[in-house]
Amino acid sequence: MRLMKTCCLLLLLTCCFPLFSQVKYTASGTIRDKSSGETLIGATVILLEQPRSGVNSNAYGFYSVSAPAGNYTMVISFSGYRADSVKIILNRNLVIPVELGNEGIALQEVVVSTRRRDANVTAPLMGVQKLSMNEIRNIPVLFGEKDILKTIQLLPGIKSAGDGNSGFYVRGGAADQNLILLDEATVYNASHLLGFFSTFNSDAIKDVTVYKGGMPAEYGGRLSSVVDVRMNDGNDKNYGVSGGLGLISSRLTVEGPIAKDEGSFIVSARRTYADLFLKLSHDTDVNRNKIYFYDLNAKANYKLNGNNRIYLSGYFGRDVLGFSNIFGIQWGNSTATARWNHIFSSRLFSNTSFIYSNYNYLINLNSTTNDINITSKIEDYALKEDLQYYVSSQSKINFGFNIIHHTISPGIADATPGSDFNSFSLQKKYSLESAAYISHEWSPVAKLHIDYGLRLTAFTIFGPGNFYTYDDAGNAIDTATYAAYKVVKTYFNPEPRFSASYLLDSASSLKISYTRNIQNLHLLSNSNSSNPTDLWIPSSNNVKPEIADQESIGYYRNFADNNYEFSSEVYYKTMQNQIDYKNGAELRANENVESQLLFGKGKAYGWELFFKKKSGKLTGWVGYTLSRTELKIDGINNGNWYPARQDITHDISVVGIYQASKKWTLSGTWVYSTGNAVTFPNGKYDVNGQVVFYYTQRNAYRMPTYHRLDLGATLVTKKTAKKESSWTFSFYNAYNRANPYFIQFQQDPNDASRTQAVQYSLFRVIPSVTYNFKF
Amino acid sequence: MKGTVIFISLFVVVACCSCKKVIHVDLNDAAPQIVIQGEVTDMPGPYKVTITKTVNFSATNNFPTVSGAVVTITDNNAVNDILAETAPGEYLTHATWQGVPGNGYTINVTSAGNTYTATCVMPQPVPLDSITFQQNGRFSGSTTISVVPNFQDPPGIANYYQFAETINDTPLHKIYLMNDRLSNGKYIHQDLFDDSVHIKTGDVVVLDMYSIDTNVYHYLDEMRQVSNDAGSVTPANPTSNFSNGALGFFSAHTVASKSAVAK
Questions:
Q1: Cys-Cys crosslink for A264: which of A234, A241, A273, B218, Cβ 3.0 to 4.6 Å?
Q2: What's the pTM value of the predicted model, to 2 decimals?
Q3: Do B138 and A285 touch (CB under 8 A)?
Q4: Chain B neighbors of A756, CB-CB under 8 A
Q5: Which residues in chain A have Cβ-Cβ distances shorter than 8 Å to B189?
Q6: ipTM
Q7: Which residue of B has its CA nearest to A690?
Q8: How many whole angstroms separate alpha carbon A75 and alpha carbon A26?
């Protein structure tokens, strides 16, 4: 609480400062790509004559720099683009739209160096990682399907949940502790085909930012990370079609102006067609099987006038799995975002968003005797307001609020009268997640940048519904019935955020940060792989909000004129109200699912090293993480600390992209990690003639070490201003390593007196080829 | 239902390009633990209780028997039977009594100075009307035959069922379970899904259906989860109804049987 008060006081003080300083004028505007009109996020604007005047364009390309009246040279730069400079006479507030071109700049080649290429050193934010779409485009992935979620797992501190799993662990957090946003809408299940692919079609994506710690106050709702994905706006100058033909899927994107320079649209679609091969089979049992997914991204924007622009964006994705006509399951996310950018003044930028998000699944069981359909859904309506006030070039205030209305329908089953099952309807759960925040980015003296703020969250659970109290054995001992909109419980939580960087010299800095995060939606998944039927539950009278406090400290250094960057970060995180499950927990179709849970705490700490080469023919990085994650849950492991499943001691990733010629780009990635913690048997015994394994300690063993090399090559066959075509070749798991997927302990099928351990591997070497085009 | 989802995930895995190999895993030794298994049914006795010990994973499947234990079974009425050890580790009741549905049975085992106790109430019997067979397609195109028990689940109360198959006089060491959590009061004709080929056309199949109590059901369900669906849950020892840390379980259950030729 004292920290909060100090924050508020500082905030008040600094807000008053500019009132007493000399008259300043502001240059503001939007920064765009010259050929497509796409806004550029995170471009840098500085006034050469004004020290410490650098600002970055925001998520909508907006920038605002202020300085005393005078003549200035404004330099605008963005990685991968030719920098531009504009002479300005700042004697009044100016609106200066900027367009940057990237013609004649080869991939990865950076033409200008401005001071702000050292933003990684100077900015106070820690644990932030941005990947350019160029990097994502060139990194080889499974089946050649470019995948942003797979690519971010190559960064230190972010670990894959395993082969064939889109889930990932950030700094010891569980897979459900990542806030994945697509144009601000929460994506509840970011995987396709049970985790082989992520829901993001990279053709439709403009920008990806990952926060592992030190999240800005505008983000909240998950403990471990924020993955902020922004969709392309569409070309507002020319119509274009691009796409790709791959071995298992194809993609097509159409974009163009609604009115030239005023508005644009983009529609991007993707579908896999592995199932079409099943259709070729003559066996009716096989050719009636279904397995595919598709997704559709669409976005449009229109400029009403110089100060107002509206955006509409949406995503719809669906997975369909069917086993003959007996069993079918389909699931998917849909999101929609309507946004209004409003520039109140050259210093005050506002964005208002209305957001809809939906995740649902549908299961059909049909047999001669049984016919049952089960549906489940989570649905959000949200209002979000974000304002940025550019006080001066050294001071910026971000503030806003958001309100999300969650409706969770855990399951409705509809059975035919002759079925073995009864129809049922689990009661819906209603909650309201509200937050207000304010934060201040401030550089009080030349070498110090700080970003501090406070987010206040309120999570309200309300009726209609029955709310149960359980005894230790999990029996409901009391039921309270609430009418519609009657408040059951409200959890208030302050989330202080603080980060600071101190420049040691022109190329190195020291940073510290402290972050508190709260999570009020929890994913129940008592299995080692992600399942589309995993259940989200809100905090309740029994389930308390999860809380994480993270402190980190880091050293950042750039070398050779910022061509190389190096960072070393240490973090320590404590987590409260963590969730685990009782033995044999029944999580499905259970009204009393909360009685199946166990609660405890966790801690995670680690050291991350990152070394990146940012320019030249060879670019790429090496990341290393040394870490530990432990849990202490009442009722598990006799209440002693034990390693969490995501406890992975060593984790190394190496990424290299080599521009061999104008036509060829070669790339490779290598990953190595200690096997995750796992429970293996220590002994065995006999029950009913069946061998049963005997366990003594939770997660006391390790899976075998995981390592894998992926290789890729891109051949550009045609590249003109209008037309482009290229081939991408890749080898996933190039040296054919049998990495463990799971280990099964079983009776030896050849020797009834023996038992054995069998390791299953998912992917051996997988070659793939994709043809990409654009016209 | 849960099994089906897991099955589907596994079939996707297999359909892709899985491969498997036997590996050596360095597993720690564990101090031997006592394992008690016993039953009382509504069929004529004697009923058997076996007491064994655990062995290390790498050992052969020869489980040491525990002799010299004092084993008693009592009910809330007249039964008070001290079992006789007829073979090493095997203890039999005396044929003077028979299990009765609704009665609570308590087993007491004293061995090497430790006492282990379990209690189980025998549920009311549920009649098995008939068994039929169902052909199931597999992803690869071939089919398996599974047994379908046909019976009326009694409405209003929670029922738990265990099924045991005997194929051509050979018991199949595979545990099938059902409960009526989502099908209370329904007429049940759900197949006992088997993803392996155990039954062939023309085989004589005997199906025993046990009405078991909730603790025994949960024990067997947890045991099935950790021994079959590899990787689907974090494994742990099933929750035994024995006190004092003994492994195994004690079940008082009814038995209903039907036999048919597979087709």
A1: A234
A2: 0.88
A3: yes
A4: 22
A5: 369, 420
A6: 0.90
A7: B173
A8: 15
